[in-house]
Each structure stands twice: as structure tokens, then as C-alpha cells.
Design goal:
Distance between the termini of chain A: 32 Å
Largest sheet of chain B: 6 strands, mixed
CATH topology of chain A: MetI-like fold
Number of strands of chain B: 15
Number of domains of chain A: 1
Low-confidence stretches of chain B: 366-374
Distance between the termini of chain B: 17 Å
Radius of gyration of chain B: 26 Å
Largest sheet of chain A: none
Order of helices and strands of chain A: HHHHHHHH
Low-confidence stretches of chain A: 215-234
Shape of chain A: elongated
Mean pLDDT of chain A: 86
Order of helices and strands of chain B: EEEHEEHEHHHHEHEHEEHHHEHEEHEEHH
Strand content of chain B: 15-25%
CATH architecture of chain A: Orthogonal Bundle
Number of helices of chain B: 15
CATH class of chain A: Mainly Alpha
CATH superfamily of chain A: MetI-like
Mean pLDDT of chain B: 91
Helix content of chain A: 55-70%
Structural class of chain A: mainly alpha
Largest interface: A-B, 22 and 30 residues
Helix content of chain B: 25-40%
Oligomer: heterodimer
Structural class of chain B: alpha/beta
Chain lengths: ~230, ~375
């Protein structure tokens, strides 16, 4: 394991620097996806007819391979981090939208009726009642989006070395240093697990109102088939 | 006063939920809307706080059309209690109760102090304040629902089948509690239920509705029982409305006799002097032990274990003729036992005497009935 943390100079980052870069490229898109998904989900809940077409459109976007995305985006955003982050934001949105919509819809009818009867307008009702009750479902969605985003950042290696920890994979081949590949895989996995654990803690902290023992997400509202990590063909 | 003037609710598919309904809901009393499912009672209730908008007709609150008020202002001036409570599961009990005061812009401290005061009023232990709804029983949740509705001290309280989802024992407790709170606060309450017994117990006025949103009868409960408007109302009231009507007649006037009442240490002379087919034996404090025939009694040393049960005694002046009759029917002697507030026997009364009292109460007519009901 000699030189495990000895990062080649062409990456222009220390080990810690690569981790920071990786987290930024992975998490900013999740945040962007969340900020887009919240109002979009509210619209889909209020206007029920809107949900199927929106869900269909986002599902088609989800089916676009990330490489194809990059090729299209490079014309506009060049070989930059942004080119990596835009597709990741879209994928996050696709995972989060149904999670939030299902979570918000799971709020019991009598709770909504009580809120309305107490003079809550639609915005107050969404922010103070529906969203807090949807928190477990939203965080379940965030966990999936975050973990898959962390693994997908590596694909950025293919466009101007914007893959953060993924760049180590290319360097491992280039310099014939397999320990760099091991480093890349292990570090990425640890980051994913750590972020996931933080989200679980966040949910426990935010939902003291959930009965013990059911502190699991009640239903899997997140669609399952997820890309295998390092699936460069997407 | 809430005044509903020929209000109709017609849905786009042509279904008529409420059909030209007119009702005057008196202030500071409980008005019950009762009827089978699909009779439009909940729709009517929800039109009062505009959760449902009427297709025709108007609803006036203190003479003003409710359409003139901003809808959220209107709703915040009316407490609303719903089946299964509809509590905010993500907020503590205290914060649930403080909801409307907070929406109205009260400070957090003031709203929580008010909430704590209401917990006490509805009979909730202060230790529950920091709990979450899932940690409470159904009955406790419903009390929280009532407290939440009362938090901003609204003049009007709308209650939509609030006690239907709890078991009968808890329901009776909640009903008694509501009557007690109403005695203290004097709100204008509109109460929806499908349970006619609940309607008769709680209502100052009862509106019986039938399928299609028609008003079948609007009357005080005693009048409903004595003179149902038609076969539907009569059927809805059930088979024993005659017996239930007795709840509205007082038992204070019943002629009591102490002739057949003897203490447990009675002598043979005392037993013989009573000269009755059945004797009620009392303990040293004067509380009833049970009935026996004179031949079965051993003078001077009566064994309480061999006495026949006396049923549930009634308290003249507090209980109704219904309670007295029930006691007489359950007694082997056919006599009802009257006791004072401390449970000491004040006398007994025969079925025949109760029957006489019922006949004269009926003869006294509706005037008395109305008086008792109010």
C-alpha cells in the first residue's frame, strides 16, 4: 500500500482536496434537485392531473445515459464541473419528486381537513403540515439520491477529468498504480455510507413524533432500479 | 345566531347532498344534526365554515352573510372537532392545542400558557403536554381535539362525529365532559352524529335529517320522543322511545314509603309489623343490602348473603323516572329503591306508583316536557 495516499500531481488536488471536490460535485446537485422537487411536488399534489405527465417526462430524462447528457451539455457548459452536476441534479429530481409527492399524499385526510378548518391557507398547510409529515419519505428519497450521486460523480472523469475521486481510476491505469483504483473505490464507498448515516441521524432528529419501531420509511416510495456504481455506459 | 336559509348543495354530477334546508341555530346551546349516512349532515356542518360552498341559499352568522368574511378569518372564529381528532402528528400535544392562537399571531409563551389551561379544562394530565399524538389513547386524542378547537375561545364550535371512533365507555365520558364544559363556557355548538342516543343526550335542539338532505324534524329531544313528525323519524328513534322519553321526567314527585324497609338486626316483631310481601334490608348506615320475603328472614340475625339483589337505586330529584322504573323492573319485589346522595335508603316505591306518575306526567302535556328540556 505504498503511495496509497500519494495523489499524482496531474489531478492538482491533495487526497482531502479530492474528497471535498467529490462531495461538492455530488451533493450540490442533490440540493438543487431537492429545491426543484419541493415546489414541483406541491404543484403535482394540488393539480393531480399534472403528476402523470411530469412523472413521465422525468422518467424519460432518467433513462438518458449520463454520457449522452455530457456530450450534449459540453457544447454549452464545456468541460466543467457544471457539466457533471446538471445531469446529477436531474437524476436527483427524478428520485425525489415521487418520494415527496407520495409523502405529502400520505398525510391523513382528517389532518388536512383539521388544518383547513383552522384557517390554514394552501401555503401554510404545505409548509407547516404536509412537508413535516412527509419528512421520513423525503429523507428516504434523499438517501437514494445522495448515494447514487456520490457514485455517479466518477463518470465525470470522462469529460476533462471532472470526476474527483473517479479520476484516480484513470490515473491508476495511466501510471500503472492499482492502489489508486483501490483508494478510489474504498473512499467513494466510505463517503456514500457516511452521508447515508448522516441522513438517517437527521431523520431521527427531525421526527421525534414517529412511534418507535416504525422509524423505517413506511413504504418504498422511491423507484428501485438504480444504476450500478461506476456504470460508465449510462 | 347561525341562520341557515333554504340552502341547497348540488354537486356537478347532479347529486343533491342538502335540499333547501332552513335551520335556526340558537346561541349558547348544543344543536345536533342527526341522521343516517348520506343525509347531508356533515355537508351542512361544513357549509357553516365554508369548507363546502352552498349551491343556493345563504348562511348568516349574527345576521351577516358568511360569504362576506374572508374565509380564513371565518374559520379561525369557529372551533372544529373531527372524528379521529385529526391531530398534527408531528407536533406535541401542547403545540397542537396552541395551533390557532399561533396562527392568530399570539406569542409562543402566551399560546402555550393558554394551551396548558385548556388541557386542564378538558381533563388532560399536564404530564401529557410534551407527548406526541401517537402516545395517547383515542379518547385522550379526542380531548386534545376539543381543547384545540377551544384554544382561541371561538364563539362557535363545529363538531363532526367527534366521538364515533371511541369505545362506548370512553364515549360516555367524553359526552359528560362536553356537557360539563358547555355549562361553563356556553358556546354555540353544532354537533353532527349518526347516533340518536347521543343526539338526545347532548342536544338542546335536534335536527333529524333523512337521505337526500331533507330536514325531517327540528325539535327539542323530549318533543322528538313524544311526537315524532312522521314514520321516518319514529323509525329512526327506535323501538323504545317511550321508555327513553321517561329520561325527561323528574322522579322527585314519586310517593316514597319506608314501610317495607327494615334494618339487618330487626326483631321478629319488627318484621311482622312491616306486614309486606317483600322487605328491603339495610345495613347499620342505612344503605340497602337486598330484598327478602319475611318467611326467609331470621329475626335478629339476617344473613346478607341470602338476600336478593336490589338493582341500581335511584336518587329522587337527580335521576329521572326512567332510572326509577329501571330499578323497579330489576327488583324481585317490583319496588324501586330510593337513596339520598350518600347512598342511604330514603324509601321505596312500587311499579304501580311509578306507572301512575308516568300517566300523570304524560297528562301534563308538552308544556312540562318543554320546561324540562330547557
Amino acid at each position: 500500500m505504498n503511495g496509497f495516499f500519494d495523489i499524482p500531481s496531474d489531478l492538482q488536488h491533495s487526497y482531502a482536496g479530492l474528497i471535498g471536490l467529490h462531495l461538492r460535485e455530488a451533493l450540490l446537485p442533490v440540493l438543487a434537485g431537492l429545491l426543484l422537487a419541493l415546489p414541483l411536488a406541491q404543484l403535482c399534489v394540488r393539480f393531480r392531473w399534472l403528476y402523470p405527465p411530469v412523472l413521465g417526462a422525468t422518467t424519460i430524462l432518467y433513462a438518458v445515459p449520463s454520457l449522452a447528457f455530457f456530450v450534449v451539455l459540453i457544447d454549452y457548459t464545456g468541460q466543467t464541473e457544471l457539466t457533471v452536476m446538471i445531469p446529477l441534479a436531474v437524476y436527483s429530481l427524478v428520485v425525489l419528486l415521487p418520494a415527496i409527492v407520495d409523502g405529502v399524499r400520505s398525510v391523513p385526510q382528517e389532518t388536512l381537513a383539521a388544518a383547513t378548518a383552522m384557517g390554514f391557507g394552501p401555503v401554510r398547510r404545505y409548509v407547516q403540515v404536509q412537508l413535516p409529515i412527509a419528512v421520513p419519505a423525503i429523507i428516504a428519497g434523499l438517501r437514494v439520491a445522495t448515494v447514487s450521486s456520490i457514485s455517479l460523480v466518477s463518470v465525470g472523469t470522462l469529460i476533462g477529468n471532472q470526476g474527483a475521486l473517479g479520476n484516480l481510476l484513470a490515473d491508476a491505469q495511466k501510471y500503472d498504480r492499482p492502489e489508486l483504483a483501490v483508494n478510489s473505490v474504498i473512499t467513494t464507498a466510505v463517503l456514500a455510507i457516511a452521508c447515508d448515516a448522516l441522513l438517517v441521524l437527521l431523520r431521527v432528529a427531525l421526527t421525534p413524533w414517529m412511534p418507535n419501531g416504525t422509524r423505517r420509511r413506511p413504504k418504498t416510495s422511491v423507484r428501485q432500479p438504480l444504476p450500478a456504481p461506476q456504470d460508465v455506459t449510462r | 345566531m347561525i341562520r341557515i336559509e333554504s340552502v341547497t348543495k348540488r354537486y356537478p354530477d347532479g347529486t343533491v347532498a342538502v335540499d333547501r334546508l332552513s335551520l335556526e341555530i340558537p346561541d349558547r346551546s348544543i344543536t345536533v344534526l342527526v341522521g343516517p349516512s348520506g343525509c347531508g349532515k356533515t355537508t351542512t356542518l361544513r357549509m357553516i365554515n365554508r369548507m363546502v360552498e352552498p349551491s343556493e341559499g345563504t348562511i348568516l352568522l349574527d345576521g351577516e352573510d358568511i360569504q362576506r368574511r374572508p374565509v380564513t378569518t371565518l374559520r379561525r372564529s369557529m372551533g372544529y372537532v373531527i372524528q379521529n381528532a385529526g391531530l398534527f402528528q408531528h407536533r406535541t400535544i401542547l403545540d397542537n392545542i396552541a395551533t390557532v392562537p399561533r396562527v392568530l399571531g399570539w406569542g409562543k409563551q402566551k399560546a402555550r400558557a393558554r394551551a396548558a389551561e385548556l388541557m386542564e379544562r378538558v381533563g388532560l394530565d399536564a404530564a401529557l403536554a410534551k407527548r406526541y399524538p401517537y402516545q395517547l389513547s383515542g379518547g385522550q386524542q379526542q380531548r386534545v381535539g376539543v381543547a384545540r378547537a377551544l384554544a382561541a375561545d371561538p364563539p362557535v364550535l363545529l363538531m363532526d362525529e367527534p366521538f364515533s371512533a371511541v369505545d362506548p365507555v370512553v364515549r360516555k365520558g367524553l359526552q359528560d365532559e362536553l356537557l360539563r364544559i358547555q355549562d361553563e363556557l356556553g358556546k354555540t355548538i353544532v354537533f353532527v352524529t349518526h347516533d340518536i342516543d347521543e343526539a338526545i343526550k347532548l342536544g338542546t335542539m335536534v335536527a333529524v335529517m333523512r337521505e337526500g338532505g331533507h330536514l325531517a324534524q327540528y325539535a327539542p329531544p323530549a318533543e322528538l320522543l313524544s311526537s315524532p313528525a312522521d314514520a321516518f323519524v319514529e323509525d329512526f328513534l327506535g323501538a323504545d322511545r317511550g321508555i327513553r322519553r321517561l329520561s325527561f321526567f323528574p322522579s322527585a314527585e314519586l310517593p316514597l314509603t319506608t314501610g317495607p324497609v327494615i334494618p339487618a338486626d330487626a326483631t321478629a316483631e319488627r318484621i311482622a309489623a312491616a306486614d309486606a310481601p317483600w322487605l328491603l334490608v339495610t345495613d347499620a348506615e342505612g344503605k340497602p343490602l337486598g330484598w327478602a320475603e319475611p318467611a326467609d328472614l331470621t329475626a335478629g340475625d339476617i344473613d346478607p348473603g341470602r338476600l336478593l339483589p336490589h338493582g341500581r337505586p335511584f336518587v329522587p330529584g337527580t335521576d329521572s323516572l326512567r332510572a326509577a322504573l329501571d330499578c323497579a323492573v330489576l327488583s324481585p319485589a317490583g319496588w324501586a329503591v330510593a337513596v339520598d346522595d350518600a347512598g342511604r335508603v330514603t324509601g321505596v316505591v312500587s311499579q304501580a306508583a311509578i306507572g301512575e306518575a308516568i300517566r300523570s306526567a304524560h297528562a301534563a302535556g308538552h308544556a312540562d316536557v318543554a320546561e324540562v328540556a330547557s
